[in-house]
Amino acid sequence: MRTKKNPEKKQPASKETIRKRVFAILLLVAIFSVVIVLSFLICKPMLEMAENPADFRAYMHDKKPWSIIMFMICMFLQVVAAVIPGGPFEVAAGYAFGTVLGSIIADVAMTVGSLFVFLMVRKFGMRFVELFVSKDKLDQVKFLKYSPKRDLITFILFLIPGTPKDIITYFIGFTDMKLPVWIAITFIGRFPAIFLSAIGGSALNNGNYIRLFIIGALIIVTFLVGSICYYFWHMKHAAAAKEEAKANEDAEAE
């Protein structure tokens, strides 16, 4: 007669493990609180100030270098919060600091924000992601995980306007992408769109409304084309990734 084996009792978490979990939760709450507070204290007033371009540029010019630091904090928060639109800040960068300097400031700040998100996701996983991005949105770019050309596809998606770069930023932390590769992708990939927006901001400052109209039209067209291309590309690669994931699960089951 067979005797039933008693299932192994789950060992209670040690005090050290509990301390680490509590610390992680408190740290996540602190990060979320800081992002929200800074968004209201710095980003919201700056966006309101941008409604009067002349005053905005004068303020940015008179308050250097602190204005540059504040502006970079806003761009950083825009990436982390993933709900604040980045386009107005990119145009404002060109208006306030000129095309070249404005593009560099915006790109560096957004790269630092992307790096921060990458490291936080690596450290805390979904606990950090769910503070700012829903799981449903994250699933939209899940196809990148199973793509053999993931790094190249990610770079192309960052080059194309209209793609969900902030969502991709949160997802990449779950992959095995190397940190230097991620930094290169986000810095180089974002730059063309940032530079184009900064040109528009600089044209607004100089009163070159013909150039502003052309740049604005170009941004809108590339955004629409990029959004359409991404939609079809996403449908194609998502289906292929789903099949590959199912095949991997079947292979593991055998």
Residue share in helices?
over 70%
C-alpha-based Rg, rounded: 22 Å
Enumerate the spans where pLDDT stays under 50 for 5 or more consecutive residues. none
Derived from helix and strand composition plus strand pairing, the structural class reads mainly alpha
Strand content: under 5%
Would you tell me the overall average pLDDT?
A: 77
Number of helices: 12
Overall geometry: globular
How would you characterize the largest beta sheet?
A: none
Q: Gap between N and C termini, in Å?
A: 31 Å
How would you spell out the order of helices and strands?
A: HHHHHHHHHHHH
For the secondary structure, the number of strands is: 0
Number of domains: 1
What do you see in this structure?
Helices cover 80% and strands 0% of the residues. It is built from twelve helices and no strands. The chain has helices at 15-49, 53-62, 66-81, 87-97, 99-124, 126-129, 135-139, 143-146, 150-159, 165-172, 179-206, 209-253. The protein is globular and about 60 Å long. The two termini are 31 Å apart.
Write the layout of secondary structure elements.
Elements (H helix, E strand, L loop, with lengths): L14 H35 L3 H10 L3 H16 L5 H11 L1 H26 L1 H4 L5 H5 L3 H4 L3 H10 L5 H8 L6 H28 L2 H45 L1
Helix pairs in contact: 1-3, 2-4, 3-5, 4-5, 4-11, 5-10, 5-11, 9-11, 11-12
Compact description:
80% of the residues lie in helices and 0% in strands.
Key terms for this structure?
mainly alpha, 254 residues, 12 helices
